[in-house]
Design goal:
single chain; Rossmann fold; seven-stranded parallel beta sheet; two-stranded parallel ribbon; 9 strands; 15% strand; NAD(P)-bd_dom_sf
């Protein structure tokens, strides 16, 4: 049986939905914090287990009868590493055979501007050292984040970001969920690291050109300085911690941390992942 944690989140939902297409519901369990949000999963026959990453007793209970656990990265960035360790410890205690984890595809952990990303690699280290078989899914930035990066008024203001000509092989979250589900069912846990990216990397020049093509409106990309971008965010009332996080992501893009392209996702899907144009057409409802 496969246990998916964070199963009512966006990535967790995508994984479970794809598992349901290819295996029996009685082979799938879902760890959720709020059972009321899991009614659709329950209706589909998924075994609902209530708990959270801080509650070790609930984790111990959730791991019973589980062969593989997919640990979806937590969103509590201040406590995430300890929470992940709790899940791994519970899996090992219960005799789970495999721990899989949704990490991040980044080139060099030692030169990251966004220091919060280091937690993913510390989790990877802990999983590798725990003695269980593992699968690590290093996910590139979701294409789904592009609307947030470019802003609601992109067709009026264009794109103004401190990313220079940095490139990202953006991929849709839904296809990442499908690729992960396929890997769990077909490849199992053989101490593998998968880099889940699209087949081609894109700059925000490419994003602007694609939005221009799709909308029929001219969208320009103007690289800005980090300091000017931070000032603009402050003027809009964005909290300091959020400014730091956003600029960390964008600086890493500029520095090439996100640019690596891998065939792993195409191989797991059995087809090419959605292109930038195909993805933006869906995300912007063209």
């Amino acid at each position: 049986m496969i246990l998916v944690t964070g199963a009512t989140g966006q990535l967790g939902t995508a994984v479970v939905q794809n598992l349901l297409k290819k295996t029996s519901a009685n082979q799938i369990a879902a760890l959720v914090r709020d059972e009321s949000k899991a009614s659709a999963l329950k209706d589909n026959g998924v075994d609902i287990r209530v708990g959270n990453y801080d509650d070790t007793a609930s984790l111990d209970k959730a791991m019973q009868g589980i062969e593989t656990v997919l640990l979806i990265a937590g969103t509590d960035e201040d406590n995430r590493i300890k929470q992940h360790q709790n899940v791994v410890d519970a899996a090992k205690k219960a005799g789970v055979e495999c721990v899989a984890y949704t990490s991040r595809s980044l080139k060099d952990r030692n030169t990251l501007a966004n220091k919060l990303m280091e937690g993913h690699f510390q989790t990877e280290d802990y999983i590798k050292e725990c003695g269980l078989n593992y699968a690590l899914f290093r996910n590139v930035l979701y294409m789904d984040t592009i609307p947030q990066f470019v802003g609601e008024r992109v067709f009026d203001t264009g794109i103004n970001l401190p990313t220079d000509q940095g490139r990202v092989p953006f991929a849709l979250r839904s296809e990442m969920g499908e690729a992960i589900a396929n890997a769990l069912l077909e490849s199992g846990c053989s101490n593998r690291i998968y880099k889940l990216t699209s087949c081609e990397s894109y700059s925000f020049d490419n994003v602007a050109a694609t939005l221009s093509d799709l909308s029929g409106k001219e969208v320009d990309y103007t690289p800005t300085e980090k300091s000017a971008f931070e000032t603009q965010m402050k003027e809009r009332g964005v909290p300091e911690t959020m400014i730091e996080r956003v600029t960390g992501f964008l600086t890493d893009i500029k520095n090439g941390q996100e640019e690596e392209v891998s065939p792993d996702m195409e191989n797991l899907l059995g087809r090419k992942p959605a292109s930038l144009k195909e993805g933006l057409k869906v995300l912007f409802n063209f």
